[in-house]
Amino acid sequence: METLKHIDAAVKDQRGEIYNLFEGKLGHVALITSKKGSVRANHYHKEDYQYIYLVSGAYESHCCAVDSPEKKQVLRVRPGDIVATPPMIAHAQKFTEDSVFLAMTTREREDGKYENDTFAFQVTEGYINPNLKQVATR
Fold it and tell me: Which of 44, 80, 93, 138 has the fewest CB atoms lying closer than 10 Å?
């Protein structure tokens, strides 16, 4: 399932603060805005690990293992939190406030790499990308 961790400042002095968000290899980073009431994702990845760091706003992260869709998890995410989603975990974000977040993935996204590893899977009611391969849920 997904994990949630709050990230505090690693360094804080008169100049400002440093937050260490991620350690490891990344293939892609995106800055994304979402309006209150919108839903993103409703999909899973076969190989990609995804990390979402919430800069501002709030959302509920809904997820389930692809092979156990009846066992759902809901995390309430606040600014400074990072959600880690491993492969084969279907996930969706339901935004409860206008939000800004960083989406970081271990695989690259250009040249069809995203679409080849991403499969539509309805975890919660809301938007499903019509360009993704559809997977029936139980």
Answer: 138
